[in-house]
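Typical record is below.
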Amino acid sequence: MSHSLKDLAIQAIKYAEAAEHTARCKEALRDAYREFRHQASPGEYLEKNSPQWAAMMGATAPEYRELGSAKARERRAKTKLLQMAKGV
């Protein structure tokens, strides 16, 4: 199927919006990690795979899931954009 330049431009905008959303989700996850560390153990390093680490992973699971979903949407938008670009 052949696509117009307008279709390609619309898909490019969708990809840009998806990439921006992914960036916001990354920042939200970083903020959630920082907030947890600040509340749980200010100034202390959290050892990976420690009980505190596991608690942080549990507390930030919604943000982590949202980032995973955002990355998947971004990948799909990029794939579609590239496929459309081949047909223009």
Notes: The helical segments are 5-40, 51-59, 61-86. The chain has a mean pLDDT of 93.
